[in-house]
Design goal:
By secondary structure, the protein is an alpha+beta fold. It is about 40% helix and about 25% strand. The protein folds into three domains: about 130 residues, Beta-grasp domain (Ubiquitin-like (UB roll), Roll); about 140 residues, no CATH class; about 80 residues, 2-Layer Sandwich (Alpha-Beta Plaits), CATH 3.30.70. The protein is built from eleven helices and 14 strands. Strands 6-10-8-9-7 form a five-stranded mixed beta sheet, covered by helices on one side. The N and C termini lie far apart (about 70 Å).
Length: about 350
């Protein structure tokens, strides 16, 4: 009797999964694209640490496994162990392995997970989380920018009126969250909104000169410019770019000099004393052109705990090659230590910080 009910139980679980995906999918096309992945998959069977068997489509990784266990496990996943050994979250799973998910209250999905998660459930949950998180982060940043602009304009105006109420009165045809999100995304200037809220339409659009602190906890609503890759410790300045939001540049970035033609969109910034997170940066290494040099370099960098994002090479001459390595580091001091370690490696002739132009 129990065996006869197994297909029905699996069918009910499948339908329930479809309903969950439909609820979190942004639109019908996204839903259909997600479901196609799960219709006729080749399967792998893996074990939980307690010995339970999990069925996943071929090519699934630890992120897919985590979301198959529970959405909260997936959303808080930070690492995994395959057969008790730490492994990349992106590593495809093979039948028979035991998978353990390491979670943290501070863990959360990143957009890069969509590059290797394959199950519809995982991809749907990741997209849903990122959309919700981006909305919340946008509102928080928008509020911070608007409060800064209001503080610069306010003199004798009564500051006791709650900001949300003030926005609702002055913008009756939209929501407070929409206004704050538009500010964070650079679609409305905080100075303009502040002037409207205070009844000062002729106020100057120039930003005040007090720097806003960057803590590293702002999330993906804050964009770190790829042209100059700012690190904590670098002098920085922000630019409110339409649709992109607040883009952080190094003060000496060549692209920023062109953006100074729009001073109303420039934002003085500084790093908080207690900065968090890792930030992308690249170094260019000139080293002897010999067999296995990249593998040796990558092994040594990984051995000192560095997260290598990408490696590319360019032959400078018959004897030397130029290698661009993109890393995740926590500060300019961290970068200096890494460059010092690289300079003493065999065959290395020169190491410099590298930026796109």
């Amino acid at each position: 009797q129990d065996n006869a009910n197994i297909p029905q139980m699996r069918a009910r679980e499948w339908v329930q999964g479809l309903l969950e995906m439909q609820q979190t999918a942004g639109n019908s096309l996204e839903f259909i694209e997600s479901v196609k992945v799960d219709l006729f998959p080749d399967e792998v069977y893996v074990f939980t640490p307690k010995g339970a068997i999990m069925e996943l489509p071929k090519g699934a990784c630890a992120v897919d496994f985590a979301y198959a266990v529970h959405s909260d496990v997936g959303n808080r996943c930070v690492a995994c162990r395959i057969n008790r050994q730490l492994a990349p979250l992106s590593e495809p799973l093979e039948s028979g392995v035991t998978v353990e998910i390491v979670t943290s209250p501070a863990g959360r999905p990143t957009p890069s997970w969509l590059n290797f998660a394959v199950t519809a459930r995982a991809r749907s949950q990741i997209r849903h989380f990122l959309k919700q998180q981006h909305r919340e982060e946008s509102v928080t940043l928008g509020r911070k920018l608007l409060e800064k602009a209001l503080a610069a304009l306010q003199t004798d105006t009564d500051a006791s009126t709650p900001l949300d109420h003030l926005i609702e009165v002055c913008y009756p045809n939209t929501t407070c969250e929409d206004i704050l999100t538009d500010i964070a995304l650079g679609n409305q200037l905080p100075q303009v909104v502040a002037a409207h809220l205070l009844g000062q339409p002729g106020a100057s659009l120039e930003n005040d000169h007090s720097a806003m602190e960057i803590k590293g906890t702002e999330g993906y609503v804050l964009v770190y410019a790829k042209c100059c890759c700012p690190l904590p410790g670098d002098p920085i300045e922000g630019f409110l770019s339409p649709d992109r939001g607040l883009v952080v540049h190094r003060e000496n970035c060549r692209n920023l000099s062109d953006l100074r033609e729009q001073p109303e969109r420039l934002m003085p910034l500084r790093w908080d004393d207690q900065i968090e997170g890792l930030y992308p940066v690249a170094i260019r290494i000139e080293m002897a052109n010999k067999r296995g040099m990249i593998a040796t370099l990558a092994t040594k960098l990984s051995g000192i705990g560095l997260n290598i994002e990408r490696i590319s090479t360019q032959d400078e001459s018959v004897h030397f090659s130029s290698i661009i390595i993109e890393l995740q580091l926590n500060s300019r001091v961290h970068l200096a230590r890494v460059m010092k370690r690289v300079r003493v490696m065999d065959g290395v002739r020169k190491v410099v910080r590298w930026s796109r132009r």
